[in-house]
Write a structure and sequence with these properties.
- The chain is an alpha/beta fold and 274 residues long.
- The protein is built from 10 helices and 5 strands; from the N terminus they run H-H-H-H-H-E-E-E-H-E-H-E-H-H-H.
- A 5-stranded mixed sheet has the order 3-2-1-4-5, sandwiched between helices.
- Helix 4 (46-57) packs across helix 5.
Length: 274
């Protein structure tokens, strides 16, 4: 029989007995966790699911193994959307800084390099479209959001308040402060605030969003995972979503480039070792 089927006798008897191998049993246990992770966060693909297995369940398997399980269970991350945002330059800038960051997105400690930007979100009241704006500051060492402010106007006050909040939370910080050339950042008053805080200003080149890549990347992550594909019918629901997500991003969302740690875990790890 085995010769006719071109299989080994051990394989035949294993099939006949109905016994599962240790690896098959492990795959079934992993598959249950994979399905649980996906139910909680359907935006996660196999790599992020594997990061959660390592971080939250101490299960260390290859990406390919998790991918095979995901394919068997027909698990796919939600559709990814292209990030279309890039802040327009100020028409009449009062101050322009050189691109001192020069795409060097590595930092050796917290508060060494900060990135900032503003992005918009829409909510709907019938056929009427409303907007809110999110201004945030991202630390390049641990990728945490060091401060953020939500507002209904994209104005100087929004950016100034974000900066003040970051300084209040990190009074000894004197980072290289990088932004695009939006009108708030080329304002003389904002430059004076930076100088008073002992910070050095850096700005992206004209029409080079990649010069502020990690900040643009954060906008993309937030919007793909919680905003795109949804229609918000109240300002409060939209703002609650953003606040909840930033808390999750800082404290619950592990990142592979941080060593399978959350931004705040990476931050605390440095403080403990210092």
């Amino acid at each position: 029989m085995c010769d006719l089927l071109h299989i080994s006798s051990s394989a035949y008897y294993k099939w006949a007995s109905g016994r599962k191998s240790t690896r098959e049993q492990e795959n079934e246990e992993i598959a249950q966790l994979v399905e649980q992770i996906y139910r909680d966060s359907p935006d996660k693909g196999y790599r992020r699911i594997n990061d959660d297995l390592r971080h939250n369940h101490n299960i260390h398997v290859s990406d390919k193994r998790v991918l095979r399980i995901c394919r068997k269970k027909d698990i796919k991350s939600t559709i990814k959307y292209a990030n279309k945002g890039c802040t327009r330059n100020a028409k009449e800038p009062q101050f322009v800084a050189e691109n001192l960051l020069d795409r060097d997105f590595h930092a050796s400690k917290p508060n060494e390099k900060w990135l900032t930007d503003v992005t918009e979100f829409k909510w709907y009241e019938g056929a009427e479209v409303h907007k809110i704006y999110l201004s945030a500051i991202l630390d390049l060492y641990d990728r945490r959001i060091a401060a953020y402010i939500l507002g209904e106007r994209n104005d100087n006050a929004l950016v100034f308040q974000t900066f003040d909040k970051a300084v209040e939370a990190n009074p000894d910080a004197h980072p290289l402060f990088h932004s695009d050339r939006g009108f708030q950042y080329t304002n003389r008053t904002f430059h004076a605030k930076l100088e008073a805080a002992g910070m050095t200003q850096s700005m992206s080149r004209v029409a080079h969003c990649i010069d502020n890549g990690p900040m643009e990347g954060f906008w993309g992550i937030l919007k793909r995972e919680r905003y795109y594909g949804r229609r918000f019918s109240s300002k409060e629901a939209l703002m609650d979503m953003i606040r909840t997500y930033i808390d999750y991003y800082n404290n619950g969302r592990v990142q592979r480039n941080l060593g399978i740690l959350t931004p705040m875990e990476k931050h605390r790890q440095f403080l403990i070792a210092a």
